[in-house]
Amino acid sequence: MEFNLKECDSDIEDHYPYKPSGYPADPKTMFGIHFIDGFPMESLLEMARVIAKHPEANQILIFTTELGQNLFYRFIEMIIRSDSLDIPFERIRVTVAEHRYWGGNIVVGDLHVVQDYIDHIEKLQTAGYNPDLVLIPSSFTLGRWRLDVLGNSYLEIERQTGCKVELIETPPVKI
Hints:
Blueprint: H1 11-14, H2 41-53, E1 60-64, H3 69-82, E2 92-96, H4 114-126, E3 133-137, H5 155-161, E4 164-168
Parallel strand pairs: 1-2, 1-3, 3-4
């Protein structure tokens, strides 16, 4: 299938079909392109605080998402260069859990379920990596009870894997 894109001088045609004539365009939804929110600095600061609370942890596993992984790495590079936070990067492993319940083509971590994290940690443990501390973005949980969309508590991850689990407060992706 081949498409030819052409520049258009008319405001009305330029935004069709995403902006009906006479309505202001929303820059987040124009042309079906979604611009994700930036990586929340507060989440990284909380991550540093949680790691500091666990000085005994020698193998720290941090979950990120396929959507946010590159942004997360760039942010970490900035922190390393600035020496602004005392984070033991040599003890940290960053990983992305596969979405098994919703399907493997999902890139938003908000749609993980507890079992996705359990399966991933168990896979790493089978390969010989046994984290002392696991940090997971809180955005996959719902409500004050911190349940996934299937009604399972995030605490089940700790129970089944034997790893200390901490949620890092992270706002859900807004679309």
